Amino acid sequence: MDEDDDGPPRLPGGKFYMTPAGHDRLRAELADQRSERHRVVEIVAWAAGNGDRSENADYKEGKRRLREIDRRLRFLMNRLSHAEVVDPAEQAQRDRVFFGATVTYANKRDEEVTVTIVGVDEADMGAGTISIGSPVALALLRAKCGDEVTVRTPRGPEVLEVVGIRYPERLDGIG
């Protein structure tokens, strides 16, 4: 396991599920990090030319920043090289929960919650997206509307009822 890889679930062969939008965001960040690295290298070179490096704050800070950038670059390149980009709009079996589905479920308090199942790097509960490796997503996978699934929580098992499943529209208008 890579030290820069914090994570959850990979597909067989070490792949990570990712939406096209998530993949594009990681590629854009990779380009930004490369540009930032180039800029910081220039600063470090300038600072190194100023003499004694042991007391040169610009040099020390630049080297520290380069280490951070390099660590993030390694992470991004690893993630992108192991990405399995899955377009939820292309899902053929739309009556079941799979990667990319937007699912509405009800808990035992009759509260309805809507979440979209995305890749581990795309999850943001505040935006209503959850990782495919989360306990809720794992419990919901392959469920149909009306199915009840059990999620293991720190408070014990919780039963959720699938109320709705939807996927983005296909570009060809079918679905």
Give a verbal description of the structure.
The protein is of the alpha/beta class. The protein folds into 2 domains: 16-85, Helix Hairpins (Orthogonal Bundle); 88-166, Chitinase A, domain 3. 34% of the residues lie in helices and 22% in strands. The protein contains 3 helices and 7 strands. The strands form 2 sheets. It has a 5-stranded mixed β-sheet. It has a two-stranded parallel ribbon with strand order 1-2. A hairpin with a 5-residue loop joins strand 3 and strand 4 (112-118). Helix 1 (20-48) runs antiparallel to helix 2 (57-81). The chain is elongated. The relative contact order is 0.15. The mean pLDDT is 89.
Write a brief caption for the model.
With 175 residues, this protein is α/β, with parallel strands linked by helices. Helix content is 34%, strand content 22%.
